[in-house]
Amino acid sequence: DQKYEIIDLLGQKYVEGMTVNLEFKIDDNLDSDEKIITSIIKPQVNYMDKIIQVADIVVSIGEE
To answer: What is the pLDDT of residues 35-49, one digit of tens each?
Structure first.
């Protein structure tokens, strides 16, 4: 029975409204509408399905 859970966000698409601390990085290899989580500085930790530590992430975005 795991009460603590580390959520793996790496490689997922970034969606507006996610509960995270983030910084954006331009990536010329992505399309202009793509937003991908490419680095985890601090992982999200849940305890009994509630966030107790918000993730710090880097989101790579395509040039507009």
So the answer is: 999 999 999 999 999
